[in-house]
Amino acid sequence: MDARVSELFDSGNGSHGGASNVKQGNDYGVAHKKACVKNKKISKARYSRNFKPNNNAPYLPPEAEEGNIEYKLKLVNPTQYRLEHLATQMKWRLQEGRGEAVYQIGVEDNGMLAGLSEEDLRTSLMTLHKLAEKVGADITILREQAVDYDSDVPRKIAEVLIRKVPDDQQFLDLRVAVLGNVDSGKSTLLGVLTQGELDNGRGRTRLNLFRHLHEIQTGRTSSISFEILGFNSKGEVVNYSESRTAEEICESASKMITFIDLAGHHKYLKTTIFGLTSYCPDFAMLVVSANTGIAGTTREHLGLAMALKVPIFIVISKVDLCTRATVERTVRQLERVLKQPGCNKVPMVVSSTDDAVTAAQQFAQSPSITPIFTLSSVSGESLDLLKVFFNIIPPLSNSKEQEELMQQLTEFQVDEIYTVPEVGTVVGGTLYSGICREGDHLVVGPTDSGQFNILTIGSIQRNRSGCRVLRAGQAATLALGSFDRSLLRKGMVMVSPEMDPTICWMFEAEIVLLFHAKTFHKGFQVTVHIGNVRQTATVEAVYGKEELRTGEKAVVLFKFIKHPEYLKVGAKVLFREGVTKGIGHVTKLQPKAHYRLSQSEDDEA
Q1: CA atoms of 94 and 164, how far apart (whole Å)
Q2: Helix or strand or coil: residue 318?
Q3: Which residue from 189, 391, 463, 474 lies 20 to 30 Å from 195 (Cα-Cα)?
Q4: 173 in Cβ contact with 256 (< 8 Å)
Q5: 12 with 296: CB under 8 angstroms?
Q6: What is residue 267's DSSP assignment?
Q7: Which residues are bridge partners to 138 per DSSP?
Q8: Is pLDDT of 37 > 50?
Q9: Is 24 left (phi over 0), alpha (psi -120 to 50) or beta?
Q10: Band (391; pLDDT cuts 50, 70, 90)
Q11: Strand partners for 596
């Protein structure tokens, strides 16, 4: 991580000059070249699908054996044996994309955009439809495009999204953290997307997202709330319109976007950081108000997402309040910040459906691409482009990585604790690895004395609907029956009894000091965020140096002051105290067993 990310955290700094100009829209030059070069280097080129043909070389990168992208020149009158083979191939591609696959029709295996006549293209699409029905999936034509090819007959290529019809609640679930300055329209935008109705200009749609009375009274989010937006196998939006319940949305959706609505006010920064570190979002959506531009915590939130390596895209809201010139000025301001050293992003303004398809594909394939949407929650302008983007955006992890995590022992991170009448104690969080079923016996801890307690999983709910099996990477709430709530706290883990968890008071981390007013030295106290762990720690030692200044790196020994925690080597560390901020990763743990504490000291800790 470039130490110059610190410029984003220092809200006092102005915008820096940008790098070379980059074309927007479809002809996005640098972004396309970077993506192609990267695809040729990496054998697993999973999401390279921009087929805006170049007159000199109408080629896509060659088809990869792995991944969820398949090239087909044509599918005209295949034999029964060939149909069976094609169906098996489609199942493989769907499995690789965790229920989604993209077929390029009219493209040869080496990537050449040959194109098909209108008749052959229609026949090929009909064959593809038959194949999809055979494997229990639906097809959606994303776009068709003419190929500039030496032929008298007009030729076209088609890009088709194939999505599996959900079975046994195994929909694809992506988590999107919503960031942005206070009053930028984050909760209102989520209300519009999930309720299916436009806002009245005074924040009516956001009322369903608020959890506390003071949030309704002030209009400011202070806690973390979750909202869901579904897409069925045909790519149609499934939300709370038409009086649907969360259970009905889960039943009919093949793909689910879970929005994590975070606080924008600087007073609630610790809550926002907790949401980013604990809930493991796949993507972050930074909402910027068109009339105020980059203000308040916008720059800081962008820096946080980059420090935690969460891919980010930008939504400019409230365009109905401004002139076109004001919106363009905000877009240019964002482009300058994104291109500055430390960010090195390639902004891509989305102004059409074709742009939205390209943006979704390039965004998942190349971390440097940053799509920018301009929309209004009141007039509904360009809202459909954002929905197209959410519909197409693929998961970052493939099925193989998912399988590997599921083979490991169970580990569930506790992020929320509730007491529900007639149900008992309920915990919410994310299953980091393994599989969790109703009736499983797990151990939860560490307690203040570093112990673990045995418990039994009663029932499981995902997105407010019942679920029998929880798989690695999924977020859920687990009912624990009569288990004593006082034995639980945020930051604990529930693990398989066979696991030997490493509990520690002290750990070493390699850090970069992003911003500090004076010097960072031994004895300094900071609030440390590591996954779902949030606790004050003291700096016990700075190895190799007496003190640290802004931008400097070092290995630091931290010690928790309240209770021991469950940590892993390699976990990302983010710490803060006032204006002091830093990032890094855990390099070494000093397990609790190494400490010669007396029993009384141990109990006090």
Answers
A1: 7
A2: coil
A3: 474
A4: yes
A5: no
A6: G
A7: 163
A8: no
A9: beta
A10: very high
A11: none
The burial of 421, by beta-carbon neighbours within 10 Å (0-12 exposed, 13-18 middle, 19 or more buried), is given as exposed
Question: Using 50, 70 and 90 to split pLDDT, how confident is the model at 413?
Answer: very high
103, 162 Cβ separation under 8 angstroms: yes
Q: Where are the alpha helices (DSSP H) in 228-281?
A: 246-252, 269-278
User: At 346, phi and psi to the nearest 5?
Assistant: -110, 100
**Around Cβ 370, how many Cβ atoms within 10 Å?**
24
Average pLDDT, the chain: 83
In 3D, which of 311, 308, 303 has the Cα closest to residue 278?
308
C-alpha–C-alpha distance, residues 49 and 583, integer Å:
34
Give the whole-angstrom CA distance, residue 596 versus residue 602: 9
DSSP lists the bridge partners of residue 303 as none
CA end-to-end distance (rounded Å), the chain: 35
Tell whether pTM > 0.70.
yes
Instruction: Report which residue type is found at 83.
Output: L
| Structure-block tokens of residue 349 | 């303004």
| Cα dihedral value 359, 364, 369, 372, nearest 10 | 50
Q: What is the 3-state secondary structure (H, E, C) of 331-391?
A: HHHHHHHHHCCCCCCEEEECCCHHHHHHHHHHHHHCCCEEEEEECCCCCCCCHHHHHHHHH
